[in-house]
Amino acid sequence: MSQRYQAAVYRYWMHDARIDALVARVSDHDGAPALSDAKSAGLGDEKRTIVIEEDDAVVALGVAASHLQPDGTEHLALETVLDPGLRFAEFEDRLLASTLTLVPRSHAASVWSHRHSLDAALERAGFGVVRELAQMAIDLPVAGPKPAFVTRPLETADADAIVELNREAFASHREAASLDSSDIVRTMSEEGFEPDGFLILEEHQEVVGFCWTRVHANGDGEIYRIAVAPKRHGGGLGRSLVLAGFDHLARHPDVLRGVLWVDSANQQAISLYERIGMTHVSVNREFERLIRD
């Protein structure tokens, strides 16, 4: 254990295939992406990434993503990636402490965790849970009637309307609400992006809902984000958009299961997903420091 505890810690300054190897290895082991999209995008920023090496292999990462709040302040959301063989208390504590050095003293920050060993490290460091996201899943295709409406693929001209609808739908979610038009344009330019997988629901030439889907290498088809205009709530559009998203994913030859993440406090949405037939499979927790210096 002493040899492992002496692993070297570096600020990351360039892309390294060893980092990709760690992320892929941990994703395969845990059965879920090791990093969220926002954190993956930060891997090229030396001010936002910590790397821990051992015997010339990258064994741990700490990554920060910046989210602008409605009051103009910056909030940093942190995630860590740790080799499954190193998830003991001392290493978790060291990785967490190293990752927290990415946060300027004046900034607010939170840490996302989906492993028990990190939960324990956060509690030892004086952090407590402030939010939980539940992952739910269902085998595809979903039985039942198809949606009555027709959706269309995302177009570049939709970016501003999507951002505004997203802002209204996720006003209480600081990470999801930070989506901007450049994020949409960048997403559309990514390798492997399929416009048909971003379903747009339009009424009278106005975007009133969307269902953003993604396909993962492990055979999961994810509803990455879904939103309905507040003025159209209560009409069943949310349920129909979920079914439309899963119907689209079920036609993909490599997709066997549909998944999505939902705020554990959103019992209305959870009940809807359960009525469709979805079940709970995992939880991702957001921690904040309970006692500040």
Quick description:
It contains nine helices and twelve strands.
Account of the 3D structure:
The protein has 293 residues and is α+β, with helices and mostly antiparallel strands. It folds into 2 domains: 2-125, Gcn5-related N-acetyltransferase (GNAT) (Aminopeptidase); 137-283, Aminopeptidase (3-Layer(aba) Sandwich), CATH 3.40.630. The chain is built from 9 helices and 12 strands. Strands 1-2-3-4-5-12-6-11-10-9-8-7 form a 12-stranded mixed beta sheet. β4, α4 and β5 form a beta-alpha-beta unit. Mean pLDDT is 87; it is low at 1-5.
Descriptors:
293 residues; alpha+beta; Aminopeptidase; disordered N terminus; twelve-stranded mixed beta sheet; single chain; 2 domains; 12 strands; globular
Secondary structure layout plus pairing:
Blueprint: H1 2-5, E1 8-11, H2 17-30, H3 37-41, E2 49-54, E3 57-68, E4 74-82, H4 89-100, E5 108-113, H5 116-124, E6 127-139, E7 152-153, H6 159-169, H7 181-189, E8 198-203, E9 206-215, E10 220-228, H8 237-250, E11 257-263, H9 267-276, E12 279-289
Parallel strand pairs: 4-5, 10-11
Antiparallel strand pairs: 1-2, 2-3, 3-4, 5-12, 6-11, 6-12, 7-8, 8-9, 9-10
Assembly form of the protein = single chain
Fourth CATH level, the homologous superfamily of the largest domain: Gcn5-related N-acetyltransferase (GNAT)
Rg (CA only): 20 Å
Structural class: alpha+beta
